[in-house]
């Protein structure tokens, strides 16, 4: 199993510790990125990726390094501690650069074969919102099954977490890791809801006269004809 991890901060606190627990349970070949060290540039909102191609993004080289790792992985993991009831700003900066890969634009068909996992922790509240946003981004780039793990640790770092809670977390991580492994090994491609969304986006592309780059991509993939991304 190939795993790509995007760490939402450089901090090695509870979120990172739990992410490592998942990696230990899952095994496999792991490629990791740490933000903001490996990516720190906010999207400029220039629309160049949509209108002219992703290679024209001012930050294209840095974005491509991470996206290539995601393309090669079987499992994509996003992790972030909760910052002000959401994911970290640096992780959002990176995810803002993936918009051109959303289904309505130019999705990579390889994503239909992947599995996702998002992980967050909070001293108090906010894991649900952070995980929901991270999952939405992975779903947006067409990963059909995204698992979520969030826990309120009520501590500043892992050493301060109560032993009883640590044991519970370890049991939960072990159980969820098995589910993730089964999904990856199953080789399932796409999902019903994802395929339904594809046909909705296909109807949009048939009438698309405002973003020719997207329409050209869909035509090139054969998706306006008989080809489908989950069959390629």
Please explain how this structure is put together:
The protein has about 230 residues and is of the alpha/beta class. Helix content is about 45%, strand content about 15%. The protein has eight helices and five strands, in the order E-H-E-H-H-E-H-E-H-E-H-H-H. The protein has helices at about 15-25, 50, 60-70, 90-95, 125-140, 165-185, 190-205, 210-220; strands at about 1-5, 30-35, 75-80, 115-120, 145-150. Strand 3 (about 75-80), helix 4 and strand 4 (about 115-120) form a beta-alpha-beta unit. It starts with a strand and ends in an 11-residue tail after the last helix. The mean pLDDT is about 95.
Condensed summary:
This protein has 232 residues and is an alpha/beta fold.
Write the layout of secondary structure elements.
Elements: E1 2-7, H1 14-26, E2 29-34, H2 48-51, H3 60-72, E3 75-79, H4 89-96, E4 115-122, H5 127-140, E5 145-152, H6 163-186, H7 192-206, H8 212-221
Helix pairs in contact: 1-6
